[in-house]
Amino acid sequence: MTGQPKKLVVLGAGTGGTLAANRIRKRFAESEVTIDVVDRDNRHIYQPGLLFIPFGLADPDEIVRPRDRQLRRGINYHLSGIESVDIDRQRVLLDNGSTLAYDVLLVATGAVLQPEETEGLAGPGRLDDVFTFYDLEGATALAERLESFDSGRLVINVVDMPIKCPVAPIEFAFLADWYFTENGVREDVTITYVTPLDGAFTKPTSSATLSSLLDEKNIELVTEFNTGEVDGVGRKLIGYDEREIPFDLAVVIPLHGGAPYVHNSPGLGDELGFVPTDKATLQSLVKPNIFVLGDAADLPASKAGSVAHFEGEVLVANIESFLAGEPLEATFDGHANCFIETGFSKALLIDFNYETEPLPGHYPGPLGLPLLKESKLNHLGKLMFQWFYWHGLLPGRDIPGIGAAMPTAGKDTGELVSAGTNREGTQ
């Protein structure tokens, strides 16, 4: 690469934007590529930790670190919101009035909670009897509310898909069962899990496993419920089909959409604010010099941190190819894996991709962690992941034996099932 350095602008300093910027900084000298990263605040939240805060298993201070401290030297950090992107003139207008020109743009601003899109969800009852644990404020307030909740009807409701970390709401139900059991009040608390899906989860194989666990733990499952209103005063969910589900305490996962600036940027996103993206190369379908990573994309894949991790390897290689004028590799297969806390120091692990359902066996190989099976080892794996997140994933380090593609070694491929279409990632 000769001449003036190319300008890479990364929108978003969450999981995807941070690990990608760090990987690219490792690949290129500053004389070859300049890197500017933009985000509206300087708080990087370890989002899997939000699940544990309501149950006293994590402290807010443990899961928040400065965004700029997670970036390698030689990366410029801009603390500002984003007003818009001009995809034709190749520049980003920031809320502070400054402009960043780019040769390559990486969109990694994730998915944004939109409680205002559901009638009543942002109104009376919020943070009294209606909560979410998908942001730090809600998770912290919910911790206080659970301390005094010793009887009544707890309802966990997913308004609609797609959402970040699709397994987290069902994990919350499992941990609630554990929490109330530990506090000796489980018999006085009714737990109901309410979903717009036709099962507990989007993938049939894991959905059957999770449905069985819900039944074992005496957690009621209500499917195909499309929430039209959350009545915080009357304490009930009201479906578009006029069904009603009463609650004493509701934990609601709001609608998700793309970042607001996407709607201010003609041609950049779809009607939900997500960016149309090639599912195998991670190059946008909008402009060839725009790439997308993580939850900001409209990919039919889980909006989960593991996906951003696996995408990162493919994305960085393709940005490198793009800058060199070489063909891109269509190698991302939608690989995702998720630890699913089931309470009582146990967890499940699932591993899948665009085409393949979660399979039994072990990950990442025959001697690895058990798949589709509760175990204390998986629980320890989830707890250990926080250390790996800060010290391995975000710095952009390669992990020996774990690549971007979904492995088949160690799995019972005789039970291979096509994943098909699901509501988890389709926009």
Structural features, described:
This protein is an alpha/beta fold and 427 residues long. It folds into three domains: 6-113 and 257-323, FAD/NAD(P)-binding domain; 116-255, 3-Layer(bba) Sandwich (FAD/NAD(P)-binding domain), CATH 3.50.50.60; 336-415, no CATH class. Helix content is 22%, strand content 24%. The chain has seven helices and 24 strands. The protein has a five-stranded parallel β-sheet, with helices on one face. It has a five-stranded parallel β-sheet with strand order 11-18-12-13-14. Helix 1 runs parallel beside helix 6 (305-323). It is globular. It starts with 5 loop residues before the first strand and ends in a 34-residue tail after the last helix. 48% of the residues are buried.
Q: What is the H level of CATH, i.e. the homologous superfamily of the largest domain? A: FAD/NAD(P)-binding domain
CA distance, first residue to last residue: 38 Å
Count of discrete structural domains: 3
Global geometry: globular
Number of strands: 24
Q: Note the total helix count.
A: 7
Low-confidence segments, given as residue ranges, are 417-427
Which class of the largest domain in CATH terms? Alpha Beta
Beta fraction: 15-25%
Sheet with the most strands: spatial strand order: 5-2-1-9-20
Structural class: alpha/beta
